[in-house]
Write a structure and sequence with these properties.
Elements (H helix, E strand, L loop, with lengths): L1 H19 L3 E6 L6 E10 L2 E9 L29 E9 L2 E9 L4 E9 L8 E8 L2 E9 L1
Antiparallel strand pairs: 1-2, 1-8, 2-3, 3-4, 4-5, 5-6, 6-7, 7-8
């Protein structure tokens, strides 16, 4: 009986985690230095996923409260603070991936098509793959759970 309760609890935990998938708080990591760069919260609204920048970890000498000066002037994020900014928009679920949305690099002001998915495999439950792309060129980052 005890092992049944333990097994049931484990299955419920795994099911809840799988349902949560991409949603929650994620830490972005600088690919060159391995340092934390920001915390992003991904939420659901109207059946789509959106990501908001909650916190940044600026290096010494960097602006601790930057604004998006490089964003297109027609973009509603132009001249807005990074912190609190919605950088990921309109992601639609397609099986185990989310796509057809966009992601903004606020430092460069560039908006890219975006696709995200939770990395499959043992030990990868807390890793989110985030791919920004423009035509045939793309870059994929790994974000980790906060």
């Amino acid at each position: 009986m005890r092992s049944f309760v333990l097994f049931s609890s484990l299955m419920l935990t795994c099911t809840l985690f799988a349902q949560n998938g991409i949603f929650g708080r994620w830490v972005t990591i600088d690919e060159n230095t391995g340092k934390k760069r920001s915390i992003i919260e991904i939420t659901e609204r109207g059946g789509k996923a959106f990501g908001r920048l909650l916190k940044i970890f600026p290096d010494v000498g960097e602006d601790p409260d930057p604004i998006c000066k490089e964003c297109d002037e027609d973009d509603d994020r132009f001249n807005q603070k990074f912190v609190g900014m919605e950088i990921m928009r309109d992601m639609v679920r397609n099986g185990t991936e989310w796509g057809d949305g966009t992601i903004l690099d606020p430092e460069k002001g560039s908006v890219y098509d975006c696709k995200i998915w939770v990395e499959p495999g043992a030990g990868n439950e807390g890793k989110l793959k985030v791919r920004g792309y423009l035509m045939f060129f793309f870059r994929t980052q790994t974000w980790v759970r906060d």
